[in-house]
């Protein structure tokens, strides 16, 4: 038990450090945002109404209010990321600064402007860092979804906006998660969820804007929540939904990441602020 | 009031003789200097163990482990999606001595879907290394520790959700031998029990994977030695000769069940209770907690096949917890004869 307390403390300290590192680096980078050239992409954005939602971590009584937003209906593809690095040479494989992306960045690309051999241009782009994802979003006039926004959409199944209470909900997702090499498949080959959003679970893990900060994920949440539940039995008391193994797995993956990491099955999609009223209605 | 409780607790702790012994051991090992350059340690797959440390002094050792997610036969014609250390269940046996300085390198395979890490119960330090080694797919992580307490210890993955990672096979044993080494014996074997909560995968009727509900109910489909039904049966039986002194290093990965470890037809001459330093004698069945380990020693006097079981017997007869030691040699009618 004492060992675990140690983990909790250390994890807390490290997370705090990561956040600082991230903020500092972003601050440096943001001195030159005009160096990012705009890129055109053709992806439908879905209006997500938002609403109150109970985060997987935290106190039973703390509901988070997710404001309406737009979300890309599918992850960013190889083809789109190629357009991004074509317009923005500083994000090419040979040019990217190590502080913004580790050595596995775009690992399988043949060269700066050539996709991996046999890669489907419509498969999600992977081996991209959080920094790269963030600046891609900037280049298309969007942003990354917050963790709460992403998880809000992840509550939906095909029929309902919140399927968390269905017994099969978590099992179904875990089954999808266990399939190897699914990140090589093209987007939009499976059915959309209630909102009309594709591929939340069946292709890749996705970066979120605040991927490593379970500490602060919205206005109503403060530093009283850390990720201590992730490592140990604390999860039983700290998680609102102990049988939601799929969410455990996602939070585990996110906690293992740093902003410059690139992973073979980790990509992203973009989001955007939206008006309170759905303009499409 | 609180002050009184605290000081009483403190007083009780201070009185405990074990606390005193432990701190003496640790202090002794802390001052042992590990010499030489770092070298890669021999590690082995069950049921084999690396060579004993013998009389050597403390050294600097490198242990390389890779976390993987693989499909492999679990029982009969069924495969299971195992999560492993070094592609085997249980993971590689690690053998060091007290005072050794160990650099543990953990690589998470690039085609892993999930992050993994390692918590070694032999470590004095936060999480047993869990946080220091938390690695996303494709990443490597490393930490160094000094082995202070002799004994037999479980290591396991502690990434969330922990019961799932352990339930899929992410455990192994690390032995820390005392100065001077354990007394030499004729045969040493590595056995680890673990239970599997299985359901049929949606992808194939011949593929099984972890079932959260069964795990939560602690209702396993299989209880197995060394990650596979029949891992020590038929051609895989452990072998020994009449007169051999046998030492078993047995761990229990769990994630939930406690093992009532027993060898049918033998009595344990020595049991290092819970893998620690207290040796008890003449034991029929010994408890091994989930996340715990035990060393048992016995000499085989009579030829025959000896069943290794969890004496919670439904697990043995219905769920796979059965292995065998085949002992060959001369009959010994003084000890046993059929009339």
Short description:
The complex is a heterodimer of chains A (281) and B (339). Chain A has 281 residues and is of the alpha+beta class. Chain A has 7 helices and 7 strands; from the N terminus they run αββββααααβααββ.
Please state the second-level CATH architecture of the largest domain in chain B. Sandwich
Spell the H/E element sequence of chain A: HEEEEHHHHEHHEE
Count the DSSP helices of chain A: 7
The CATH class of the largest domain in chain B turns out to be Mainly Beta
Q: How many strand segments of chain B?
A: 23
E-strand count of chain A: 7
> Briefly, what CATH class of chain A?
Alpha Beta
Characterization of this structure:
The complex is a heterodimer of chains A (about 280) and B (about 350). Helix content of chain A is about 30%, strand content about 5%. Chain A has helices spanning about 1-30, 80-85, 130-140, 145-155, 170-175, 235-240, 245-255, and strands at about 45-50, 50-55, 65, 70, 205, 265, 270-275. In chain A, strands 1-4-7 form a 3-stranded antiparallel sheet, with no helix packed on it. Chain A has a two-stranded antiparallel sheet with strand order 2-3. A two-stranded parallel ribbon of chain A has the order 5-6. Chain A has one domain: paralog of FGE (formylglycine-generating enzyme), CATH 3.90.1580. Chain A contains 7 helices and 7 strands. In chain A, helix 5 crosses helix 7 (about 245-255). The longest helix of chain A has 28 residues, at about 1-30. Chain A is globular. With about 280 residues, chain A is α+β, with helices and mostly antiparallel strands. Chain B is mainly β and about 350 residues long. Chain B is about 15% helix and about 40% strand. In chain B, a hairpin with a 6-residue loop joins strand 18 and strand 19 (about 280-285). The longest helix of chain B has 14 residues, at about 1-15. Chain B has 5 helices and 23 strands. Chain B folds into 2 domains: about 35-175, Cupredoxins -  blue copper proteins (Immunoglobulin-like); about 185-330, Cupredoxins -  blue copper proteins (Immunoglobulin-like, Sandwich). Chain B has helices at about 1-15, 15-30, 160-165, 210-215, 315-320; strands spanning about 35-40, 45, 60-75, 80-85, 95, 100-110, 120, 140-145, 150-155, 170-175, 185-195, 200, 205-210, 220-225, 240, 245-255, 260-265, 270, 280-285, 285-290, 290-300, 305-310, 320-330. Chain B starts with a helix and ends in an 11-residue tail after the last strand. At the A-B interface, helix 1, helix 5 and helix 7 of A face helix 4 of B.
